Amino acid sequence: GKDDIPVAIGRITDSKRDTPNPTWKFGPIVRAAQANYCKTDPAAVLVTSTEDYRYSDPWHYDSAGYLDLGRKFADGLETV
Fold first, then answer.
1. Are 9 and 80 in contact (CB under 8 A)?
2. What pTM, to 2 d.p., does this model score?
3. Which of 5, 11, 42, 51 has the most CB atoms around it within 10 Å of its CB?
């Protein structure tokens, strides 16, 4: 029942690897929902550094990306 619990969301990205088509079909819909949620919840922050990450396979960021994402989550939560 608490409305002020901090939430950090990492914006999903598409590797577009191993295929000319997007890896996930509904990515734009999910990204829009992530952004809308963060706009309406003052305790939420959207981390967008994921655009620059590399991938270990078509669906997952590499280790450096996950480490950076964790740091950006921590940094973002300090602002809410």
1. no
2. 0.84
3. 11
